Amino acid sequence: MTVTSASPSTSPSTSAVGGAAPRPAPRPRADALRNRERIVTAAREMFVEFGPEVPFDEVARRAGVGNATLYRHFPDRDALIHEVVLSVMSRTTERALEAAAEETDAFQALRRFTHAAADERIGALCPMLSGAFDKDHPELLAERGRLEEAVQALFDRAQAAGRLRTDVAVGDLLVGLSQLTRPLPGSACPNFDRFVHRHLQLFLDGLETPARSELPGTAATLEDLRREL
Q: Where is the composition biased (Low complexity) (predicted)?
């Protein structure tokens, strides 16, 4: 009788070449994720109040974590600014999508988004994007693309409904939003939000049809804004 030797089976823990199979990276612990979010939230608030050069010690204190915890998540200022910018963009995009989904009136959807973007402190992005900050990081480009697409959709919908004047473009909205919501670091202006929303409402009234005047210059498009960045 011929005896056939069995082929050795391949263990799940070994690869085809005999090496150990790579293990999946461990998921961050829930408390680590909470600490990271607290740091980003505190940094966003303090960057608005005092500018992006606020001391890390103060950010850690506001977040309720130790300095070691902050540096473990964000080894340098650029890493923290990067995460804050991503957070602001992502949250603002979600506000645009919510307005589009929940508002039946096209101009009301645009109005709701504009005020919500102010609450997300989108005007604080400009000072954060200065200096050596990597504005062309793939994550940032992808998130900016999502934001631009969501806002453009709101803008196009309002114009198609005849509620938004035709001599403006989405860049006009974003520039106005940035200028009217950009805080002066360290100014500690009392009731700042009250003035922001009041002036945004005046700005939005100027965007609605019928147009009450002829605008000088040309409409600002997203392409115009990208060339300026």
A: 1-22
Q: What is the pTM assigned to this prediction?
A: 0.78
Please state, in angstroms and rounded to a whole number, the distance separating the CA atoms of residues 170 and 154: 9
The candidate with the shortest Cα–Cα distance to 171, out of 216, 224, 131, 133, is 224
122/227 Cα distance (integer angstroms) = 19
Closest CA to 118 of 84, 153, 82, 88: 88
Which residues touch 39 (CB under 8 Å, ≥6 apart)? 59, 60, 63, 65, 69, 70, 73, 74, 80
Question: Per residue of the chain (229 residues), what is the pLDDT tens digit?
Answer: 444 444 444 444 444 445 555 555 555 578 888 999 999 999 998 888 888 889 999 999 999 999 999 999 999 999 999 999 999 999 999 999 999 999 999 999 999 999 999 988 887 777 777 666 788 889 999 999 999 999 999 999 999 999 999 999 999 999 899 888 876 555 555 556 678 888 899 999 999 999 888 989 999 888 888 776 5
According to DSSP H, which parts of 25-105 are helical?
A: 30-50, 56-63, 67-73, 77-102
Treating both helix axes as pointing N-terminal to C-terminal, what angle do 30-50 and 56-63 enclose, rounded to 10 degrees? Answer: 120
Q: Which residues contact 28 (CB under 8 A, 6 or more apart)?
A: 36
Beta-bridged to residue 20, according to DSSP, are 14
